[in-house]
Amino acid sequence: MRYVWWLVRCQPWRVLRGTVVGTAWMIGLSVRPYLVSRAVDDGLRAHDPRALLLWVAAIVVAGAGLSYLGIMRHRTMTFVREDATARSAAVLLRQLSRIGAVLPRRLAAGEVATVGGSDIGYTSQVLTMTGPGVGAVIAYAVIAVVLWSVSPLLALCVLLGVPAIALIIGPLLRRLERAESVYRHQQGVLTTRAGDIVAGLRVLAGVGGRGLFARRYAARSQDLLAEGYRVGAVYSWIDALTVAIPGLFLAAVVWLAARMAVAGDITVGQMVAVYGYVATLIVPVWFLLEGSYGVIRGRVAARRIIALLNLTPDHVGGPTPQDVGGLGNVPGARRPLARSAPVRPADLYDPACGLTVGDGRLVGVAADDPAEAIALADRLGRYVVSDVTWGGVPLTGIALDQVRARILVADHDSYLFAGTLRDILRAREASADGRAGNGGTLAREGGADHRVTAALRIASAEDVADALPVGLGTPIDTRARTLSGGQRQRVRLARALLAEPEVLILIDPTSAVDAHTEARIAERLRAARAGRTTIVLATSPLLLGHADTVAHLSEGRIVATGTHAELLEQDRGYRQLVARGSDALDSEDFTGPEGALR
Amino acid sequence: MSRLPVADRAAVRREMLDLVGRDRRAVLVVLVLHGAAAIAGLAAPWLLGTIVDQVAAGARVATVDRLAVAIGGCVLVQALLSRYAQYAGHRFGERAVARLREEFIRKTLGLPVSVVERAGSGDLATRSSVDVSTVGTTVRDVVPTIVIASAQLTLLFGAIFLLHPMLGLVALAGLPPIWAASRWYLRRASSAYLAEGAATAELTETLTTTAEGARTVEALRLTDDRIVHGTERIARVWTTRRATLALRTVFYTVVEASYPLPIAAVLLVGGFFLSKGMVSLGEVVAAALYLQQAIEPLDRILQWTEQAQRGFASFARVLGVGQVPPEPPGKASAPPGERLVVRGARFSYTDGHDVLHGIDLEVRPGERLAVVGPSGAGKSTLARLLAGIDAPRHGVVSIGGCPVTDLDPAERRRRIALVTQEHHVFIGSVRDNLAFAAPDASDDQMRAALVAVGADWYAELPDGLDTELGDGARQLGAADAQQLALARLVLADPHTLILDEATAALDPTTARRTERALAAVLTGRTVIAIAHRLNTAHDADRVAVMEDGRITELGSHDELVRADGAYASLWRSWHS
Fold first, then answer.
1. d(Cα A562, Cα A539) in Å, to the nearest integer?
2. If you measure CA to CA, which chain A residue comes closest to B120?
3. What are the tens digits of pLDDT across the range A465-494?
4. Which end of chain B is less crowded, N or C, counting CB atoms within 10 A of the terminal residue's CB?
5. Is the pTM of this model over 0.80?
6. What is the end-to-end Cα distance of chain A in Å, rounded?
């Protein structure tokens, strides 16, 4: 609730205006029955054309005024809600952008979609209570006073009867909503199935099985049909009841009023007006009922938003980003615990497997088990707590944002956000430009495309840009689904190169690329990263052949180091791992199904 | 990209009439019941008017009591009638929607692949999700609401005409401004709301993808970039919402100000008639109350029209899929031979720029041919021609002497299977994912097929073949999914296989293992493997090197190495 209150406090005047207009509108609703009753009594019954004209004119004017108030209420409240939505989205966005690698582990992506897609909206809906909600209470009171002046007995009946009816019907509607949500869920499942079929059309075209899928879909569609019939049965009853219950109540009130009119306690015009007031009262009562439901739902939603905002990054040792420049760049915030990073490029050492990466070298690491390679990259890039040292300083002791700025781990499945190809490639550069005073060394605007083209060339990805309709400016969707696997991989490589980190750690950068291209990339990569530390985790002989030194990682330890050629000669395990030609066959595993090959 | 067709107005209208026509009795029942319910609903204000008259004439309490009971009775009758009307209408809607979506899927499954690819699967995906469910809501909820409200309106105005024809005419006074405002609004509303929906979806997508790519955001320090990007999205949502709000501002102001107009007119004219003794006081009051009652159904119609309009547009897109001519059944019967022959094949995609420049190739039955070459050389295009997905612009691709595109599609798929690096795991169990390729396969065969492609992960599955895969259940990684696709192929057992980078998603070691295991299972089959790893080429009977849409080298691995061309130099660098 404190969160909702914060959303209100951010826009006090707008909320106040909403309250005033909302109240005026609600009260205005009861004006028309009154005017009509006066027109009947003073004009029609009294056969007074002038009075009739006067009251009819009043009806038209009041109608115009009411429609003005109504739209002002709607506008103000829409702005209140939109303001809240934008604010919630903004804080959420900041949090999501800042939290980092921990997020996917702590939270399913579906959860973020729920919070972003509906919880923000539900929370904003709560604010509706501040406008028409307040108005509804006041309107209810005003109508009570007016009715009381007509007849206290009638007033009592109406004032208690309308809320009672709302309380009866409310739960019925909730039940309907539940039945509907079951249906909608099933419908969603069916829609997913349809999407599944569409996505798999090419597979079905390649292998067959279309008839089976059509039949399976039809069976599920019939299940949904049966569920729809069930919902329809509930729905139609509830709908009929929501018509019948207020109708019967209205009949009772009219009956009571008519008997009073017969007895001469009230006039015929007043009798007609009572009829109108009952109808009018329904609006504020419904508002309150719906509003209270909205508040319940909004509280749950707000709690989920808060839970997301309270997530903190993983502790990977040392000072947390909050301590150093995360929240406000206070220079003194650096804890004594923080060790300063090596001023100059330095050696990296991982005691866990015994790997040393000399400064400025191109080091290849061939791992028997791909999972070991990823674990090594996580240690070197400090995504986990480890004993890795950098120039003799424990990596864990260095401020995390310094590590991130200077050491880049380029995962082979690193994420590609939607944007133009240029945006995707220059991602880090663009964000560095945004950082005050940090963009000095970077070529701007005109020169930038030149660098992008150079990076694309190194990654042998010029053809990716060339094949797109407007080259670098072509928008590409999330995860670059329109590109082929090999193209995506080369774009990722180009992006990592453009970031120009001091230490670049590449995981399987060419696994989806053909041999011709891989050979080109290996050569150009070496030239482009000359003098800067680069670690390539791969088993491709083309890449490893270009490394200064190669390490063979087996069962958690570095078992051999040397050049590619040396290792090929000395380390049989290495030879089997990387040699993809016939000599692997010549060795021990010639038996088994492979024997059938040649 | 040529988009999928959209049905024109006439076709949509025809189809709608057809939907009604197929369920004529249900529609009739619904209309009769709704009509009866609306008439019962009219009785209440009329009885109220009678009460007013009776009270004004000095009636006794007994009369009032009798009339009040009558009002109560009418309300109950109306409720009962409308319940059964609703229910019948609902059932009709459900049936119609079910028929539509099943038809849509049937048509979609019958689409030629080349059409789907050219249109982009995004368009089709939108039609299958957004459009089908929009049509569903329209048929199920919107159309009944509008039909009921229209019936109520017609009866209400009819009743006023019955009270006095002049009162009826006067009551129509408020309609012209409402009509004008609606037209103005509807012409703009759909696109504005679609833009709003798109902007909202984009914002959600930005938040979700930022969360999904959180590690990348941290690694590349994209925090500020993501915030800038997201803030733009938030601003766009705000702008689009303002746009729709502006439309509503005009529309609702005019409409709501118009509602009291007919009431005022009826009172005024009624007063005049009353003074002439042409109508009773009760009749004028009843007319005013009818008009008061008419506001609600009118409001409902206006609110739902925009949705109905959108439903109409979606319906047109759903029907459009059915207008694509389905895959031709094929002219030729099963060819006798299995020899694949390509003669002078040229091919160009839409822009008229040739991707293949005269390919000549012959693949013997049982031969294993590897195709290598740099990306963009036309390897995948050749694979598509061989599989019969596209026909060459010039030249011929034939199997057993019969052009592959002339074969019946089902027959062709049984004989020639194409597996690409695009794999898809269908929602369902492992068995579901395998069975469609070979409906008669036993569980043992399926397990054997998984073992044959080296899918070790199968052993870890909790429920074996019954383990549910995909969305919300167990997610297979790219490598596992690719092995599943290969296992499917083993089960389908075609005599000719085209593997287009079919193991690209596997890590090199696993890829090697899988390929070999697969090769063992597929002995005797014709295999054309497009590969970026040279070991595949090394294992093959012959290697074709493609460059710039031409086959530049063709021969066995050893021959090509001896010939000392491009292949040989590549092999040496690979092999050093």
1. 15
2. A482
3. 887 878 888 888 777 777 777 888 899 999
4. N
5. no
6. 73
